[in-house]
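Deliverable D5.2: sample structural annotation.
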Amino acid sequence: MNWNGVIPAVTTPFDPNGEIKQDWMKRHLRWLIGAGCNGIVPLGSLGEGATLSFSEKRTVLSLSCEAVGTDGVVVAGIAALSTREAVKLAQEAEKIGCHGLMVLPPYAYSSDWFEMKSHVRAVIESTALPCMLYNNPIAYKTDFLPAQIAELAQECPGLQAVKESSSDIRRIAALKELLDDRLHLLVGVDDLIVEGIKAGATGWIAGLANAFPKESVELFRLVSTQEDEQLWKLYRWFLPLLRLDTIVKFVQAIKFVQEETGTGFALTRPPRLALTEDERSQVKRILKKALSEPVLEPLPFPG
């Protein structure tokens, strides 16, 4: 299992009837892998996993494995209202051929460490697949503290990685202090990628990579190789776009960027609605500036 490098949390494209555009999604995933991404994470927050039926989730995982093949890893996002359904989805992901799991806390229920640990441990231990714990207290109201993650890592050999999305860069250092190299640490907030890698993370679950995979891969390479002059030039260019990954309507914003760049579709499933006119104008302004001053030659999306 390769937890290093850029592994985008991929969007789910919908047609006007709300159905998944399967052929387009496969083409998009192959494009990401061809740009140098090490794999993909379907069914995450950005993939609107909470709005998909179990059958649709199976479809997304199947087409993801078909599209990526042996050229990268498919890490299935595992989240549900109940532990029972999360375990069922994890086992289905293993049958389909996914390479790993990204394990989330329950969608709507947040409680104490005893209950949350029981939930994620049940999912981790339900398959032989390597697992990544997703810590996003802002979105899911459950905060897996470094000491708790260390406890879980000691008890669960299948836990191999952590996607840290608390927006607290000190968490990376705290996890390294407690666990050394026991777990792979991945940044889950786009506008902390440089700081996160410098603090010791070795992977990036990226959002804006859905529209700018080439720039994401190059940014990761530059920070990993400490080529600071080129790094800061690219980071300054990319940062206004990367900040779109941190707003409440990040799914709508990123999918809108995809539509504007010809790399996807802006349609989302309710309760997510289209951006307002003012919101679209703000995103367009950021995007227009970036496209007018490219640091790298754009990677065309296959027609």
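Annotation notes: The chain has one domain: 5-292. DSSP finds twelve helices and eight strands in the chain.
The annotation will be released with the project's public dataset once the embargo ends.
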